[in-house]
Amino acid sequence: MSSLDQGSSSPLKRFQELTGQIKQYEEILGLVYWDMRTGAPRKGIAQRSEAVGALSSETFRLSTSSEMGELLEKLNEPEQLKQLGEIDRRLVEETTKEYERNRKVPPELYREYVVLTSQAESAWEEAKEKNDFPGFVPYLEKIVAINRQFIELWGVKTTPYDTLLDMYEPGLTTVELDRLFGELRARLVPLAEQIANSQHKPDTSFLEGTFDKEAQKKFSKFILNEMGYDFEAGRLDESVHPFATGLSPGDVRITTRYLPDDITSALFGTIHEGGHALYEQNINPELAGTLLCTGTSMGIHESQSRLWENMIGRSLGFWQRYYPDLQAHFPGQLDGVTVEAFYRGINVVEPSLIRIEADELTYNLHIMIRYEIEKMLFNENLDPRDLPEVWNKKYAEALGVTPATDAEGVLQDVHWSGGAFGYFPSYSLGNMYGAQMIDIAHKELPNLDQQVAAGELLPLKQWLTEQVYQYGKLQQPAEIIERISGKPLQSSYLCDYLENKYKDIYRLE
Amino acid sequence: MSSLDQGSSSPLKRFQELTGQIKQYEEILGLVYWDMRTGAPRKGIAQRSEAVGALSSETFRLSTSSEMGELLEKLNEPEQLKQLGEIDRRLVEETTKEYERNRKVPPELYREYVVLTSQAESAWEEAKEKNDFPGFVPYLEKIVAINRQFIELWGVKTTPYDTLLDMYEPGLTTVELDRLFGELRARLVPLAEQIANSQHKPDTSFLEGTFDKEAQKKFSKFILNEMGYDFEAGRLDESVHPFATGLSPGDVRITTRYLPDDITSALFGTIHEGGHALYEQNINPELAGTLLCTGTSMGIHESQSRLWENMIGRSLGFWQRYYPDLQAHFPGQLDGVTVEAFYRGINVVEPSLIRIEADELTYNLHIMIRYEIEKMLFNENLDPRDLPEVWNKKYAEALGVTPATDAEGVLQDVHWSGGAFGYFPSYSLGNMYGAQMIDIAHKELPNLDQQVAAGELLPLKQWLTEQVYQYGKLQQPAEIIERISGKPLQSSYLCDYLENKYKDIYRLE
Fold first, then answer.
1. Which residues cross the membrane (chains A, B) (predicted)?
2. I need a surface site. Which of A336, A360, B372, B444 has the fewest CB within 10 A?
3. pLDDT tens digits for B453-481?
């Protein structure tokens, strides 16, 4: 026991208490948001928002209090720091970073931003429904303007947009992302062209039809169970936009959406959110109740959702095991369809307008477009009013499609209404991290393919727990990928994986 | 505008803000409790309890802060008090009472108690399931011990138990309750005997059988709708123990329980909780967000649940209107049963073991037993370990029945696991308040019986809103009953009502 945690009033003990309290409030706020999105009565929302505002402000106040500042100053003294265990040291580091960032924001500006973004989400919903981009512009302009202010307050890293990127993927830069996306583009665009020219297009007609909702729900639960999702530490509900939320390792909730005419929405949505949930359920219990008890970055989080959704959930082996179960859940509906035909059907590649409906390959092009636009907004002062024009031009160039309306163009995603600039790259980072991890997993679990094809998914879950999940925020994204693979993040694993997969499906040379 | 609310730093304004914040935290805590009882994953409960402890403690801290003390001191100056409007004056009065009570409890003790009771509920559930009273004793002993400490800290009123009673029914004393229960006993025990000797026992065999859960759910929703429950300001879920919780007038949630072999459980449980909910949904919007926005006492709250459940929901008129609907929900199952036979069946009187399944008449005897036991616990230092023995003896004496297990005896109710000693009398108070109110309602709404028999329930809801609901905590229970009926609470209305009803059903002299 170090000298720092002697007695109830030691700085370390008080620091643990204070950060623990912040984590507890975050857990409660997480539950309130979950409730708002899964069935809270309409007429209570306005007052609930006020209550959320009050508790969020208190949480912000705690994290920027002068007490917190004094504690961090003491704990950051080199001699004190040396005495801390690994968890406490990392907690001090992470909290210091947050403290310094938050202290630079005047509380009134923070409050204005919280209220603005919570109103903007409804405004965005309405604008999307009515295809009314001009109606959303005033919100977007203010959100971008405040984010530009934040960047000034926080300090510009290399470029202004780098400051935002660092929030979601600590240490990530535009230089690095430009390189990674450049490499992806160089290999994936030609691949997409080869596919477009292939004569061997998968049949997808069997995916159309009406799929019983109760059967979809039952199958979703069955698959989550197979993945090792612990229903005693979570639950599955419905919401318009599927999400996962880790309130604590003992309470990680998933939502999905059952579309009567599209079986793939709930199926892959559930596996995707299930991947996020496995991460949060399997963080080392020693981190429970601390601010380190969550995924280390959005990119690593998306690596888990997208690895389970695509690399496992859209693999042939997976369906060799589970396709008969799926058929049994929808008697008669998939009778004439072989497992190979099903596999090819769920992996069809087609340039499309909507990111969340995109296939595994072109998905990365959707992300690239958003990345380029966000860079323009913050590094080139692009006027938000010009977004539709820029958006449509980029879609035409990269995917050869043009939205007929802004609703299916620039208004399609919720992210910007919440001010989440810098988040989108996480999805492609997730694809790259995931491919790099699964490559190593195949080496360390030589029977992985056979295991998946036999419905033995737990060895992979166990391996990912050991390599990724258990650490929570204890290790940075770059540390994790280097520890696992001996290398920094590379684009080649994802490109190799996609080329292999699609050469087979589309019978390419 | 008084001189007190000038400027943003006026004591009144700050007082409104501070009490508003307390109310907001209470709303959030209410949601967390609702979630814990309707499906929060088991493995997250321990950590959630800690988070609840943290937020409850903060709420407690706010309500006992020196800032609050200073504000109350200023606002309670006679000259200042005179200038306040009705709402603010009552808010100051209520907050002062809470402040003075809470200031006497050391924060550490409070926190310990919150964590203890939130763990004790799960422990009680398990003990009840396993019929393991000894497993629950350690919790009960601690809860009773801390309540004894609270009483010492708050100050003993006449007797220690009076101090607890006052929390649920302000101003109520054991002297008053001894008198009221004495009067009830004098008239209801002979009535129960006459009924036991009657040759005209209702047939209840048709209530046995298997009732489809989905149909029960549908009918529950239908009846709530008929009562004027607003589903845009609430929702109906399931829980082991039905409850209603008013988070705000725009979010008042109900739970019920569907038993496959007992149609009456969900039916009357839903109407009961619906009565609570009508109260909370119809509080004057001017009180929203203030600490006065809730029922004025547990007794008045129970008057609404039990009035709707029994005086309306178990009346012949009600079923003349709704019985055909009920029959239609369960095709064939009630074919040979007339509405009169159904009415008599759901009003059968029989001494039983379980309070929540008791008939309208003997229900009061169940309450009397709990009242006597609670008095023994706090006024005679009864050892909690002796509860099963005392419980079983009293049941044998008062009702002539003896529980075969503690699960159907002393472990049946959740209340004590939450430390709610002094709550039980509210149920019988509710029966008495309700009978007194409905007597006046019949005078002021001369067509009430015909309206109920025609399914016009909204005039009664409207009358109760005007007389009771709108006021929230703005008026005290005694003020309300005196304003409505011109008299203090009396036992005679309930006795008259029960005698009339059962003389008819059992064809008594």
1. none
2. A336
3. 999 999 999 999 999 999 999 999 999 99
